[in-house]
Amino acid sequence: MEQLGLDDDGTDLRTVRFAILDVETTGAASGADELTEVAMMVVQEGRALAHLQSLVHTDRPIPPAIVALTGISNELVADAPSARTVIERTARLLEGTVMVGHNVRFDRSFLGAAADAAGITLPEVPVLDTLTLSRVLLDGEVPNHRLATLAHYLQLPPPSHRAMADVVTTVALLHRLIERAGALGVTTLEGLLALRRPRRSGADLERQARRLPHRPGVYYFHDAGRVLYVGVATDLHDRVRSYFSADTRTSVRRLLRRASSISARPVPCDIARPLTELAEIQTLRPPFNQVGVRRPRTRSFVTPEGRVIAPWPLNQPDPPPSISTCFDGDAHTVARALEEAIRHLQAEMIQASDDGEYERAAALRDLGALVATRVPTSLLHEVHREGRRLGLFDPRCDARHELTGPEGLLDLGPDDPELRSYRALLVLRTIAERRDLILDDELAPLVALVRESVRFRRGSVGAASDPSKGLARSS
């Protein structure tokens, strides 16, 4: 039997051949039930070297529930190879590999039972379970560690209760888990096999929270050098301590179980603080900030004079010409034109609600709120691309803040136009909540439009007409 070459420094994962395995069966008991399908793929460094996919003949009746789940019936396996033939082929492929599966004990027990019945000795190889590995490396990020759940969370090919489809999913999962392990400094097979879920001291974590200052800022939960979660607080000490007492959400319990340390960064400015949090999330991509959050599918569209409006929701049609013609010109021209267009939209919305056309009223509300935020966002982003400075004076911190241009606040975070557009939208919404800021002349009409969007969405149309639709008439 070919042996893995293990040296004193461990076996480099790039040299390891992994044999990813999945089986389908007539039931759950390996001593009584039988194989119906076996699939295996041997991979090394991301390349497929060999594969096996075969139905397995069985005379045992396949229960209707199994047929419904897998699509494998007795008629389908009537002319399939015998278990002995399939096990012989499987044993040859396993030589010199590491056996991998998701809940691999199940697959291994059925292979072993079939091999014993056929008088075949399977090679003794290391065994790696992606179920165990995901519980170590993805602890707290997912509600459970079923293969379908992990595939959805990590955007892998979905499993389908057929052996080769599940193997393909498990291969992709293995590669993702190896990437995660690499971020922890694990680059050898021995290190991967030795990974265990660490024991955390909740008391130690809470002591770290108690040491945080009573100051506004951004806080971080860490694990083994990786940021798990980024949050923002007006009082770092009180907010982070609340995780250990007042906050009983399941996701919080998972976070506390996973985290090993807490740190914080004071950010006294009300304008910079939420923007810093978003920029850090965009840069670090902490897993607990991503749970339940999908990046919106967006696009852009171009106005008659060539201005790019983005990000625009992919499922939202282009605005009608009566609206889109308002998007060209300088900030003051656009603001005046859009304010007039939004007034017309609101009148149409109220009329549609009064006529009982609630879906149309909601669509008009969404369009008005959308153009009143996305157009100012695009204009601010345009100023930034041109390298022009645009900013404000904040009397609370007695300081001027540059939003655009060199070293402007929009440069916090990744240099990605779409991500920067979301930062521009956030900063405009943050500014719109304040009435004491002294804004540059070109910035003021953009902020006024964002305030209009908030009023438009919150005050829209008549709850008196149909309260169940949640549309409240503006006064």
From TrEMBL:
One of its GO terms (cellular component) is cytosol. Residues 339-374 form the UVR domain. Keywords: Exonuclease, Hydrolase, Nuclease. GO terms for molecular function: 3'-5' exonuclease activity; nucleic acid binding. GO terms for biological process: DNA replication proofreading; nucleotide-excision repair. InterPro entries: GIY-YIG_endonuc (IPR000305), GIY-YIG_endonuc_sf (IPR035901), GIY-YIG_UvrC_Cho (IPR047296), Ribonucl_H (IPR013520), RNaseH-like_sf (IPR012337), RNaseH_sf (IPR036397), UVR_dom (IPR001943), UVR_dom_sf (IPR036876). CDD domains: DEDDh, GIY-YIG_UvrC_Cho. The keyword Zinc does not apply. The keyword Nucleotide-binding does not apply. Residues 214-290 form the GIY-YIG domain. SMART domains: EXOIII, GIYc. This is Exonuclease RNase T and DNA polymerase III. It comes from Acidimicrobium ferrooxidans (strain DSM 10331 / JCM 15462 / NBRC 103882 / ICP).
